Amino acid sequence: MIDVIKIGGAVIDDAAALSAVLDHCQVLQRPLIVVHGGGRRATTLAEQLGLPQTMVDGRRVTDAATLEVVVMTFAGWINTWLTAQLQARGVNAIGLSGADGNVVRATKREIQDIDYGFVGDVAAVHAGVLHGLLDGGLTPVIAPITHDGGGQLLNTNADIMASNIAASLGEQVALTYVFDHAGVLRDVADETSVIPELRAGDVAALVDSGIVTAGMRPKLDMAFAAVRAGVSSVRITNAYNLGGGTVCR
Amino acid sequence: MIDVIKIGGAVIDDAAALSAVLDHCQVLQRPLIVVHGGGRRATTLAEQLGLPQTMVDGRRVTDAATLEVVVMTFAGWINTWLTAQLQARGVNAIGLSGADGNVVRATKREIQDIDYGFVGDVAAVHAGVLHGLLDGGLTPVIAPITHDGGGQLLNTNADIMASNIAASLGEQVALTYVFDHAGVLRDVADETSVIPELRAGDVAALVDSGIVTAGMRPKLDMAFAAVRAGVSSVRITNAYNLGGGTVCR
User: Fold this and answer.
1) CA-CA distance, A201 to A206, in Å (whole number)?
2) Which single residue of A129, B81, B123, B194 has CA 20 to 30 Å from A108?
3) What is the ipTM metric for this complex?
4) Are B99 and A76 a contacting pair at CB < 8 A?
5) What sign for the dihedral angle of Cα A137, B87, A124, A203?
6) pLDDT surpasses 90 at B211
7) C-alpha atoms less than 13 angstroms from C-alpha of A172 in its C-beta half-sphere
8) What's the rounded Cα separation, in Å, for the pair A149 and B87?
């Protein structure tokens, strides 16, 4: 069994929550891959550099200057810092972007209604390199940056990367999405209202009725994509209850 | 034989020179490790962020904010971009900082006359991970950032990292320092005045007489440290004549 733990941006920005996840990684007795999001830091850096940021449906419109900012922030500071924190806990972490070892190749999103710029949709995960690193006792820590194989880096959604990576591994995988709520909630204001188990067929009705917020839809789609691809266990939870939250079946 | 090619900051900043080195990496038929410097980009970013930079003897005084800038620039943009350019040439590159796989651990430089801040002196290279990556057909691309094993990232000189990495590999290694001159010059204004071969005993006299500039001294010290450590071939040259330049014996 391999654990794939996706650490969301809101958790990256919360020192206590992030410590809780990293402490969990330290005591895990199974091979582990960490995938992390970005958080507010890229937006802050962009603002400091005078680059106005545009978000559309939670996706960052990524021009060339913004691409540099997200690569520097996600693959640079956050990834390297997380790796050092895991090393300090005795976890032999190795930070990667999708370009490293050609682990995640993507294609630049085609312009339809909106030109997202240098945003990538995952085209292929090369699990062989990940298995090689895991077999060598290493813990890959993967930033949400990919490449197109032609030298172009691309900003890529971390939820999608985690789902695709988990699905690619070809063996028993437990995928955990860690975000800033205790699970999928029936009432977004009530952290005790976790829905303990969800099936793919439930999602549309829960969103349509407003019980599950529309903002949860992309994450749920990725969770159920992993379920469909055969990932053994898919869970959405917070940093303090990694074995709890919502199980997607 | 393993090649270790150190790409200096001035080469990183020169698109044509950098392409020439990357093209060379593509046609090499031997295992390869790339170590790269930083270049002006970190200084530019620091200036954009309103962080005044202080250099002492070619070393950047690295406070906490500057550390973030150099990690973002060196381990973030430059390392990830170089990796993608090598991937585009069919080289299965994997970008690393010293924290990745605990490859290069350092100690924060002690405060003597000058407090350099978060600057690291190499304490240990763990060549096992590098050999594992090379054996897996990967080409490590190493940024001049290390960690102290306790979660602290450190800004580290790339010439020193390259020398220490080359010396750690325990087999035949060809170390090439690529910078913006054709070799060690008798006359810094004349690129045809390359000294084809230098011995450690020659260096002090050449510097004292002013034939070799004082700024070359740290690089030469690292080159000869590698020679003393048993590195088979140590060369200082430019991007267009990688088999030429100055051989250190």
Assistant:
1) 10
2) A129
3) 0.96
4) no
5) positive
6) no
7) 3
8) 6
Report H helices in chain B.
Answer: 9-12, 15-27, 41-48, 64-70, 79-88, 127-135, 158-168, 200-208, 217-228
Cα gap B85→B45, rounded to integer Å: 22
Tell me the residue ranges of DSSP E strands in A64-204: 93-96, 104-108, 120-125, 139-142, 145-147, 153-155, 173-178, 197-198
Compute the residue count for chain A.
Answer: 249
- A101 vs B85: CB contact, 8 Å cut-off? no
What are the backbone dihedrals phi and psi of residue B8, each rounded to the nearest 5 degrees, phi first? -75, 165
Tell me the helices (H) and strands (E) count for chain B, helix number first: 9, 14
Q: Which residues of A touch B149 (CB under 8 A)?
A: 87-88
Closest listed residue to residue A28, CA positions, set A207, A243, A179: A243
> Domain containing B129 — which CATH number?
3.40.1160.10
- The whole-number average pLDDT for the span A123-151 is 98
CB contact at 8 A, B124 and B148: no
Environment class of A180 (CB within 10 Å of its CB; exposed 0-12, middle 13-18, buried 19+): middle
- Residue-range definition of the domain harbouring residue B128: 2-248
The three-class DSSP label of residue B49 is coil
Single-letter residue type at A214: A
For residue B173, what is the enclosing H or E element? Answer: strand B173-178
Whether the pLDDT of residue A168 is over 80: the answer is: yes
Interface test with A, best of B19, B67, B83, B129 (most A CBs within 10 A): B83
Residue A227 CA to residue B191 CA, distance in Å, equals 63
Residue (of B73, B96, B70, B66) closest to B83 by Cα position: B96
A8-17, A130-139, B36-45: least confident range: B36-45
Residues B139 and A40: their CA atoms lie apart, in Å, by 33
Of A76, A145, A151, the CB nearest to B71: A76
Instruction: Show residues of chain B in contact with A152, CB under 8 Å.
Output: 84
d(CA B143, CA B82): 10
B154 forms beta bridges with B146
Position B59 scores a pLDDT of: 83
Average pLDDT over residues A219-242: 97
Three-class SS state of B125: strand
